[in-house]
Amino acid sequence: MIFMAENDYTGKDIIVLSGPQGVRKRPAMYIGSTGSQGFIHLLYEVLDNAIDEAIAGYCKNIKIRLSKEDEQDVAEVSDDGRGIPIDIIPKVGKPALEVIMTSLHSGAKFDNKIYQVSGGLHGVGLTVVNSLSEYTEVIVKKGGKTYRQRFGRGTSTSALEEIGSASENETGTSIKFKPDKEIFSVNSFDTIVLQERVRDLAFLNPKIKITLIDARESPEKADTFVSQSGLDDFISYLRGDKQEVSKSVILSKSQNNVKIDVVFQYINSYSEELLSFVNNIRTSDGGMHVIGFHTALTRAITNYIQKNPKRATKPQAAIEGDDTREGLVGIISIMMQNPEFEGQTKEKLGNSTIKTLVDSISYAAISTYLEENPQEAAKIISKVAAAAEARESARKARELARKKNMFEGAVLPGKLADCTESDPEKAEIFIVEGESAAGSSKQGRDRFYQAILPLKGKILNVEKASDEKIFNNAELHTMVTAFGTGIKETFKPDKLRYNKIILLTDADVDGSHIRTLLLTFFYRYMLPLVQRGHIYIAQPPLYKITKGREVKYAYSDQELNTVMQGYDGKGAVQRYKGLGEMNPEQLWETTMDPNNRVIKQVSIKDLELANAIFTVLMGVDVEKRRHFLEEHASEVSFLDV
């Protein structure tokens, strides 16, 4: 059947939605999504307004309180800033507070008089919060009085009212809101993600105290975030226990109404970790300020090498931008008027003029630092040179690998038992430990959509290895080829041949180690696959319980106890030490059948924390790893010996 649109297209077909209606109709346009990302974005909009008061010099304390009403999280953000204006706006005859909460593109951030810089630019933040919340309550203290007005789903539900007095010098705003169940598919704020955002803000705004109170469970928890030294504290936190190669370099300058603050240093690592911010908003996708800094860094280092041949040993390989960023950890923070973000969620800066400005300022500062600190410069050049030479060696290894069809050719690895399903969305691959388990899984699988790739022993620990060793490792070659994504410069996550990559290892110490090595590889070299939710961990049963002809499986000691109680303790228990002990039917029934199996999706909530843990547990520093294990030994609830 073919559906035809009406031929007559006139003015009666045009639907005009007022501000709040438009927001509720298309919420993702304003907050990114109606899932957890958009849910917490409402809180960020309110928090950013409080931070803007701090940037302007009028706020020293911010308090965030999370509570719960009818199984739905509620947030309240309070600050001791100037307080949202409550006087009547003559043109509309309404209090300024009501206009700000109910009208898109209203606010004091358009002419740079009240706020020289701010994270909120479009005058939509509080209106969006109101539009997408079941209710919003605003309390303002100023002029010795306390005022309150209530809102809901984009409109005011009460008039502005004076509810009490306030001390003469007491000012501030408190905004409490309950996200609307009709809009969002989730009902709670992600505490880890919120803590990361609050921590960032504390580092970026020295001496501003931000208190996060979680009253969703009893007893309530309170964490206070405050930094005395700003970016210096930030890079210390970001570096963590990683071994330093050079001291941190700090540069700060204001020019053309733009304030640029950068701190960076080199550590003993093979990856870059550079956080970027514009007006306190983390630009997770970077932008022109990051491009400008990267360009300046590469140019300053290469020029220093050319001008100082006696101080700096010239690398055997030509230096490229990636070489100057290997092992780089740092923060770049820009304060500017009228930034042009890509999208309301502000993840990438688009102002082209900022690239040139950051480039020129950073180049001058870095060049001066290198000239004035020859010993530190020598350490940096040595690190960059090693990266360039390793990259060149890796390039040669990759060329050899391509010739042998080990990476990107049409020939799949011989040990791969592929599936017949050609649609990646429907296909999945099991990375299986050992030949015995691989044999059972190949026989027990559903050949239509399940592929099996056996691994021989423990793979390379990529946290301690250079690219050259990684590209020459046969097991890693096999995996990358099977996935179809390529790696490093050729990595294309959209080319993934399987929607699910499931790690299937023994339920013992060796199996856990192999799983950890695999997760380290995915984190360091295929992070987008983790972030997109493609990586899973299979949960094979620990026990087989038999009573007569009846067989049950238990995936934990608690399940075992429950089954044994049902059998009055008379069942025969077999403890599985390896997948190879299961026959194909058992492996399918317990671990591979989507109707019965238990698999855990791997995700990352705190990128910085994950990075720190991988560095400590899988890195080269034995003493720091021993200290970590000793410190957390008491937290181990189960240890298979």
Strand content: 15-25%
> Going by CATH, what is the homologous superfamily of the largest domain?
Histidine kinase-like ATPase, C-terminal domain
Structural class: alpha+beta
- The unreliable regions are 1-5, 7-17, 106-123, 403-407
Q: First CA to last CA: what distance?
A: 65 Å
Described by the principal axes of the CA atoms, the overall outline is: globular
Task: From the alpha carbons, calculate the radius of gyration and give it in angstroms.
Answer: 29 Å
Mean pLDDT, to the nearest integer, reads 84
CATH topology (fold) name of the largest domain: Heat Shock Protein 90
Task: Provide the helix percentage.
Answer: 25-40%
Task: Give the tally of structural domains.
Answer: 3
CATH C-level name of the largest domain: Alpha Beta
Continuous helix count: 20
Could you describe the largest sheet, including whether it forms a barrel?
9 strands, mixed
Strand runs, count: 24
Descriptors:
641 residues, alpha+beta, Heat Shock Protein 90, Ribosomal Protein S5, domain 2, 20 helices, 21% strand
How does this model look, in words?
The longest helix has 30 residues, at about 375-405. The strands form five sheets. Strands 1, 2, 5, 6, 7, 8, 9, 10 and 11 form a nine-stranded mixed sheet that branches. Helix 1 crosses helix 5 (about 125-130), helix 3 (about 35-55) runs antiparallel to helix 5 and helix 8 packs parallel to helix 10 (about 350-370). This protein has about 650 residues and is an alpha+beta fold. A hairpin with a 2-residue loop joins strand 5 and strand 6 (about 145-150). It has three domains: about 20-225, Heat Shock Protein 90 (2-Layer Sandwich), CATH 3.30.565.10; about 230-390, Ribosomal Protein S5, domain 2 (2-Layer Sandwich), CATH 3.30.230; about 405-540 and about 600-635, Rossmann fold.
